[in-house]
Amino acid sequence: MDGTKRSDIKVGIEVAIVLKKDQRSGTLTEGTVAKILTSSPTHHHGIKVMLTTGEVGRVKKIL
Q1: Helix, strand or coil for residue 20?
Q2: Cβ-proximal residues to 5 (8 Å cutoff; 6+ apart), any chain
Q3: Which of 1, 6, 49, 55 sits most deeply, having the most CB atoms within 10 A of its CB?
């Protein structure tokens, strides 16, 4: 499942995100969602979230 729909993402689930600094390479960072930052119901690049580690990025994959 990709991370373009806000309704698919809940606080506490495991996701793979792409950090701003990794957008060119596409390197994914895995973690647990602490906060959902995108307010719109969908976003074509992925919903922006904050992980429990404090890292912020767009969801590319729901694990």
Answers
A1: helix
A2: 41, 42, 47
A3: 49
**What CA dihedral angle connects 45, 47, 50 and 56, to 10 degrees?**
10
How far is 17 from 38, CA to CA, in rounded Å? 14
Residues in the chain predicted with pLDDT less than 70, given as ranges, are none
Domains in the chain: boundaries: 6-62
Q: How far is CA 21 from CA 40, 53, 56, 57, in A?
A: 23, 16, 10, 9
Measure the CA–CA gap between 63 and 19, rounded to whole angstroms: 17
Task: Count other Cβ atoms within 10 Å, centred on residue 46.
Answer: 22
Spelled out in words, what is the top-level CATH class assigned to the domain 6-62?
A: mainly beta
pTM (two decimals) = 0.93
